[in-house]
Amino acid sequence: MKRMILLLMVFGLAGCDYGGIMPETYDGEAFVKDEAAISAYAEDNLLVADDIAARFPFVESSEIPGTVESDRGEQLILEPGTYVTGEDLDPGRYTGMMMDAVGVVIIEDSSGIRILEVSVGVPTPDVTFELKPGYNMIFKSRDSVLELSTVENDMMEPQETGSLMIPAGTHTAGTHIEPGNYLLASESLPLLSASGEHRIYWNVSGKYRDFDPTEGPGPEDTVGVEINAGDTIVSDYYIELFQQ
After folding, report:
1. What is the DSSP letter of 199?
2. How much is the pTM?
3. Is the dihedral of CA 79, 83, 85, 88 positive or negative?
4. If residue 202 lies in a helix (H) or strand (E), which one and from where to where?
5. Are 139 and 103 in contact (CB under 8 A)?
6. Cα dist from 65 to 32, 132, 190, whole Å
7. Rounded distance, CA 18 to CA 11, Å?
8. Neighbour tally for 167: CB within 10 Å
């Protein structure tokens, strides 16, 4: 019996050719450097790749730029489900909140392109976003509801240290955040310009850190970013910026 097993193993390996048991995946062609991508990251800390939409699907949407009129006041309690703007919800700017439970808020544009997917709860208790006509808001949770309220298009103000905490969601420069040059202390800053071009800034040292409240982060913890009027930040987590 042992001899039979040994023979089967030998014949099985022989049938695998020189590649062994694992299939051959490398085609022997030399790797080609993407000089444009290397330069964009080295000079401006920008991610450039053909498959960028796999991580940031919002880059394929042409509907994100621009804001809608919104007033503060309306408060809703939503069960899990899909809500269509213009039918189930009015267009406007909203904040969704969950404090003691966990859920997911997904925003799709009118073409079905996923703009946001935010895990709401701990450690991200809220998300703020625009709902334009035809957008879908999908809320998923096993055992809880979403507290949804309309908010105005207010300008965010930095703290005394210069720190500006950007909530998860969509935020437009010139309406919700002042355009200008900032230091990015978080991992990434995804932007979509008014013309539909995306810029993804990346900070390899950027995580949630405890900075000196009087000084902020050191230069080794941040990268410089430029936010132009009309740029929209699209993020699934909190982003911390510092004014320069």
Report:
1. E
2. 0.80
3. negative
4. strand 198-202
5. yes
6. 35, 11, 13
7. 13
8. 21
Exposure string of 53-63, with b = 16+ CB inside 10 Å and e = fewer, is eeebbbbebeb
Say if CB 133 and CB 127 are below 8 A apart: no
Beta carbons within 8 Å of 125's beta carbon, 6+ residues apart: 97, 98, 99
Specify whether the CB–CB gap between 223 and 184 falls below 8 A: yes
- For the record, the structure tokens of 211 come out as 């900075």
Residue type, 66: G
Token look-up 């450039």 returns 48
pLDDT by residue for the chain (244 residues), tens only, comes to 544 443 444 444 444 444 444 555 666 666 666 677 778 777 778 888 888 999 899 999 999 988 999 999 889 999 999 999 999 999 999 999 987 889 999 999 999 999 999 999 877 899 999 999 999 999 999 989 999 999 999 999 988 878 899 999 999 999 999 999 999 999 999 999 999 999 999 998 876 555 555 556 666 789 999 999 999 999 999 999 998 8
3-state secondary structure of 69: coil
- Sequence-distant (6+) residues with CB within 8 A of 69 are 91, 92, 153
Contact 134, 110 (CB under 8 A): yes
| Rounded Cα–Cα distance for residues 70 and 130 (Å) | 9
Strand order of the β-sheet with 198-202 is: 75-78, 146-150, 92-97, 126-131, 169-172, 232-235, 188-192, 198-202
Identify residue 99 by its one-letter amino acid code. Answer: M
Compute the distance between CA of residue 128 and CA of residue 180 in angstroms, rounded to an integer: 22
Tell me what percent of the chain is helix, strand and coil, each rounded to the nearest 5. 15, 35, 50
